[in-house]
């Protein structure tokens, strides 16, 4: 893991890391409908359990982001209508978790609708937490005048990235307010994440060539001066990955055009033993069985130089498992076990892929590191039962 003197983000495995493409489809129901800014119920945890099964939350849920702070894990994910945070001491059971409504957008703003893929990061320099997430001025229904300018239909043309700021250093007790819209050059932007390297901060997100291109959806990177300000001009924005491989297209190896070809949900992942830095991202289309994870490695010193990136073109590094009826796996985040001896991937997947977005649920499994290549070794996605994380319940 990089030692950062300017920015220190305590993210999920994301302290070492730091994921997804959201949805261009029917809304996901919120996990709860809290009536106040925070609900601190007394949860009932089965902390003495030695095994668990997937999914770890019995609700429709996608684009999970998990971070550990103190004695608790915190998870946030796409709810469409707001930004919600759950708290649990148990990584593998969120069904009795405490719930906090972090932010409910007001009407008639550029961030009122389609709240997707939230992440929450802690910046030591400011002693505050920052949520970064996607939102839209309209519920994916741009005007015909705007839509006709797109190469293909473009319901998400007005999606942009936003940052919320905490009132203090406590992730749970803080109040959160809108800090800023991140500059994405007045172009489509979803699934943004913070990326850190050599004491510098960057924004990586899913982008288009122009605001009317629609497809393909690629991965772009820009430099930031702080968690709410992009400092790179458009001329310095770099495309680090395009969906140019057969497994990144929908349907597989589509040759007609780039429609539905996607790279999204990027997440930084750093090998704590070798200090290798990766971007794990989602490829193909989030509403079908082929959705999977790809890998790009930072092999140079300048993230804004395309020669500093090496994309794995061999195929998905995490993909469907028909033997256990797990499909459409992607938009992952990473976190350590309670005793910090293990690494875990938290992701969404489907059982009935014919239901598309509404079939997605949140799952978790342990992963390891390859001692030769330094790459993450992800498991086959499955149901279980699996052993609970080391140190859980102790």
TrEMBL record:
Alphabetized GO MF terms: hydrolase activity, hydrolyzing O-glycosyl compounds
Any matching Pfam family: Glyco_hydro_43
Gene3D superfamilies: Glycosyl hydrolase domain, family 43
CDD domains membership: GH43_LbAraf43-like (cd18820)
Positions of transmembrane segments: none
Matches recorded under InterPro entries: Glyco_hydro_43, Glyco_hydro_beta-prop_sf
SUPFAM superfamilies linked to this entry: Arabinanase/levansucrase/invertase (SSF75005)
A biological process term (GO) from this entry: carbohydrate metabolic process
Keyword annotations: Glycosidase, Hydrolase, Signal
Residues of the signal peptide: 1-19
Family to which this protein belongs: Belongs to the glycosyl hydrolase 43 family.
Name used for this protein in its record: Glycoside hydrolase family 43 protein
């Amino acid at each position: 893991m990089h030692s950062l003197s300017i920015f220190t983000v305590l993210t999920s495995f994301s302290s070492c890391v730091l994921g997804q493409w959201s949805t261009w489809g029917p809304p996901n129901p919120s996990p709860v409908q809290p009536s106040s800014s925070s609900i601190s119920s007394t949860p009932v945890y089965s902390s003495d359990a030695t095994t668990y099964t997937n999914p770890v939350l019995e609700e429709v849920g996608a684009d999970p982001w998990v971070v550990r702070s103190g004695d608790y894990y915190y998870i946030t994910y796409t709810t469409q209508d707001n930004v919600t945070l759950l708290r649990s001491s148990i990584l593998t059971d969120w069904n009795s978790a405490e719930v906090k409504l972090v932010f409910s957008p007001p009407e008639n703003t550029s961030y009122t609708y389609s709240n997707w893929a939230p992440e929450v990061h802690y910046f030591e320099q400011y002693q505050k937490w920052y949520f970064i997430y996607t939102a839209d001025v309209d519920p994916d229904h741009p005007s015909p005048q705007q839509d006709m300018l797109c190469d293909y239909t473009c319901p998400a043309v007005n999606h942009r990235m936003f940052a919320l700021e905490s009132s203090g250093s406590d992730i749970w007790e803080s109040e959160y307010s809108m800090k800023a819209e991140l500059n994405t050059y007045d172009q489509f932007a979803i699934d943004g994440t913070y990326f850190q390297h050599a004491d510098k901060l960057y924004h990586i997100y899913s982008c288009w060539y122009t605001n009317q291109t629609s497809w393909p959806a690629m991965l772009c990177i820009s430099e930031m001066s702080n968690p709410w300000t992009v400092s790179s001009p458009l001329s310095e924005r770099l495309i680090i990955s395009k969906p140019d491989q057969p497994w990144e297209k929908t349907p597989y190896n589509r040759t007609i055009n780039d429609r539905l070809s996607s790279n999204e949900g990027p997440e930084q992942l750093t090998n704590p033993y070798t200090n290798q830095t990766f971007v794990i991202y989602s490829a193909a289309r989030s509403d079908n069985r082929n959705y999977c994870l790809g890998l790009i490695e930072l092999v140079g010193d300048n993230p804004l130089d395309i020669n500093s990136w090496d994309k794995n073109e061999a195929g998905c590094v995490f993909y469907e498992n028909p033997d256990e009826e797990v499909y459409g796996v992607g938009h992952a985040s990473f976190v350590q076990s309670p005793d910090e001896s293990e690494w875990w991937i938290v992701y969404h997947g489907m059982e009935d892929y014919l239901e598309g977005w509404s079939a997605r649920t949140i799952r978790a499994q342990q992963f390891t590191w390859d001692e030769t290549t330094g790459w993450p070794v992800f498991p086959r996605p499955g149901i279980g039962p699996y052993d609970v994380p080391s140190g859980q319940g102790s």
